[in-house]
Amino acid sequence: MIWARLVFGGFGRRGLEAVVALVVLAIAAALVTAALMVVEGARHAMTRAEREDRPDIVQVKSRFNRAVFETPRSGNLPPLTLPVYEPLIDLEKLNTAGGTVLPRQSLLRNVVSGESFLNLYIFGIEPDKESRVSIFTVGRGRFLRSDDGPVAVLDRESAQALGVDLGGTFPVRKADGQDLRLTVIGILDRLELRDPPPRTIDAPAVKPDSTYVSSGAFVTLHTSEEIFGRSSPTDALIIAPAVRDVPTIVNGLREAFRLEPGAFITERYGQFRRKVRDFAQTLAFFAIIAAATAALAGSFAANLMRDVYANRRRQYAMLLALGFSPMQTTIVGIAVGMAAACVGTLIGALVAVACTPGHFAMPSLMADLGMIRPSFTALAAAVVIGMALVAVTLGVAPTLW
Amino acid sequence: MSTLSFVIRSVSKTYRRGQRRVTALHAVSFALSEGELALVVGPSGSGKTTLLNLIAALDRPDCGEIIVGGADVTALSRSAAARYRNERVGFIFQSYNLLPQLTALENILVPMLPKRQADTRRARELLDAVGLGDRARHRPSELSGGEQQRVAIARALVNDPALILADEPVGNLDDENAAKIAKLLASACRERGKTLILVTHDRNLIHPVDHVFDLRSGSLTSIERVFAS
Fold first, then answer.
1. What ipTM was estimated for this complex?
2. Quick check: is B21 in a domain?
3. Is residue B204 domain-resident?
4. Using the beta-carbon criterion (under 8 Å), do A320 and B58 form an inter-chain contact?
């Protein structure tokens, strides 16, 4: 009890200033914590966007030909060979641009399924490379290997629509009019194809509402070439060695395909860079809020603390004379300031965590990042604690030293 | 003949005030035996408080030795000096320096706090001894100047130190109270066998005393050994 009164008592009206300092620190801690939580949330969103958007990928695709989708849905017509994109991509030109090239043949086949026809997307891919950009989660069986023959991996929706299971076969009409039977070697639980073609025809779909193709049969590129009867890809992805290399690769591709009006080159890097700029501005805005709040509130709290301690210097000198060690005197001296700093920081941080919205959308291009989810991190904790400690130290130092 | 328990040998201390060096003490030497009472008299600025601060190891001399109980206190580390002050020195200030947030009894207990051995019974005995047994729960603001200094005397004695340092202990009191407090302090030290060094302007404040040291401009100009009749 004596210790408590020795440490916390005797401030008189100055005690009120200590309470005000505590409140100021609490408010500052709340603002700084909230700002840093938003910064952290934005940083996560940016990281997520970079991971999901893959600005390092450049897409090259052929002209999309809508006319070919006038597919017979019933009747006794023979199955048709329908490309999604026209096969206009020259692989050699792709290879001149640099980066890792992932050629694809994205086909639409009207295959026989029981007594009817089924529109089925068939993708000729290079399995090893494609796995670097798309998500294939094999539920049963196995995924493709580059040396596989006439085999296919299907997602569950396509398998059900075709009425085939692992080990089963289904016919696909080749360009030469012959059927090629593809054996199902794997069923996918999850499929997220990077940069799929637009979905413009009724076909099995993992994501029914998606405007892009979300379902299909995957075969090796040489199998699709056999089906398609040609070796030129319909589309391709190029992975840049680094994000900053994208403009160079795009320029190289545009130069390579400058005489080919049916080839389109798209990149996300430009938009991503604008997002980054928005992101940096947002970070700067919230960081400025945090820094200004910390500086203003910290200096205010420090001044208050200096006033609080102004009359204590004599007491601490007396305690030294009575045999308190310098450490004990310092502890007695800083206890009020530390208590104000700790309580203020704790209250402020709790208020910030409680009141900051769980998620919200950012304005402008950053909205594309998706929801910002503010999160309380060790960095935020360290910053607010540091702010409080610095403020109190500056306030207490003139008295104790 | 009692043994020498306290020796100051050639102690000097200078302070730097801006570009100027001020000599606070110059080659001060004297010795006291256990249980002796000494007055240090001299005008303001003569170095009396500096001398007490050096004896209490609150400051270090530029040169010289201060031997208390066989140990040189000028060589103590900061923590050892704190322990020395706590265990072997009782300090009485001119302005009492009681903690306003604590009661009289709690103020007496303060020197016991560093060792975490707050002996309330002993504090009450000392409060009774200085005549304030009924004011234990009063705050300093509720006590007169004389009463506050009585509490300060009890506080100085609570850890049973061998040496009591009193810096103008009656400087803030009227003559009547000053005489009472001085008498109380002297008798408290004599009864308990404490060595008292009392800084004052008034060389007749306590009678009888064993020594009177006259300090002027940092130097001892006269050392009187007074033999009580």
1. 0.85
2. no
3. yes
4. yes
Domain that holds residue B221: 36-49+77-225
Contact A2 B56 (CB under 8 A): no
Residues of chain B in contact with residue A336, where contact means CB-CB under 8 angstroms, are none
pLDDT at A312 over 80: no
| Nearest-CB residue to A323 (from B86, B99, B106) | B86
Sketch the domain layout of chain A as residue ranges: 2-52+274-400, 57-267
The answer to whether A398 faces chain B, any CB pair under 8 Å, is no
CB contact under 8 A, B113 and A3: yes
The mean pLDDT values, 10 residues at a time, for chain B of 229 residues are: 72 88 90 89 88 91 90 89 90 86 92 86 89 90 90 90 88 81 85 89 81 88 65
Q: Does the residue B209 lie in any domain?
A: yes
Contacts A318 to B, Cβ<8 Å: 93, 97, 99
Residue A64 pLDDT grade (very low, low, confident, very high; cuts 50, 70, 90)? confident
Chain A residues near residue B110 by CB distance under 8 angstroms? 2, 6, 319, 322
Token readout for A245 is 């290399």
**B165's torsion region: left (phi>0), alpha (psi -120 to 50) or beta?**
beta
Residues of chain A with Cβ-Cβ distance to B151 below 8 Å are: none
**Number of A:B CB contacts under 8 A?**
68
Residue B164 lies in a domain: yes
Query: Do the beta carbons of residue A80 and residue A263 sit within 8 Å?
Result: no
Asked if A384 contacts A297 with a C-beta cutoff of 8 angstroms, the reply is no
DSSP A289-319: HHHHHHHHHHHHHHHHHHHHHHTTHHHHHHH
Quick check: A322 contacting B, CB < 8 Å? yes
Split into its structural domains, chain B has a count of 1
Q: If you write DSSP's letter for every residue of B126-192 in order, what string do you get?
A: HHHHTT-GGGTT--GGGS-HHHHHHHHHHHHHTT--SEEEEESTTTTS-HHHHHHHHHHHHHHHHHH
Q: Which of A91-100, A130-139, A272-281, B177-186 has the highest mean pLDDT?
A: A130-139
| Residue A70: pLDDT band with limits 50, 70, 90 | very low
- CATH number (domain holding residue B91): 3.40.50.300
Query: Are B114 and A314 within 8 A, CB to CB?
Result: no
Say how many C-beta atoms besides its own lie within 10 A of residue A180's C-beta: 16
Residues of A in contact with B97 (CB under 8 A): 314-315, 318, 321
Q: What is the pLDDT of residue B207?
A: 78
**Single pTM value for the model:** 0.63
